[in-house]
Prior knowledge:
The chain is mainly alpha-helical.
Amino acid sequence: xxxxxxxxxxxxxxxxxxxxxxxxxxxxxxxxxxxxxxxxxxxxxxxxxxxxxxxxxxxxxxxxxxxxxxxxxxxxxxxxxxxxxxxxxxxxxxxxxxxxxxxx
Length: 104
């Protein structure tokens, strides 16, 4: 499987080192870079879900150029992106709970 086959949510991973602001004197760029990465990832998931809905409705309406295969591929991409988002959220919640359960 090539990296081109992965959903766009994974395309934000290489930019972590670039936009993290490592070495800066203030932590502001680190936080804004982190939130920017999260925001871009969530927008990417939302865009893939919207593209899936558009492809499905175009196929159902019988629009020229719309095909079942395009609708299914768009739907699968949106599903993979959503599942990855939920998995990441679950890991973050688990890490938070582990930290909060640490003894002082």
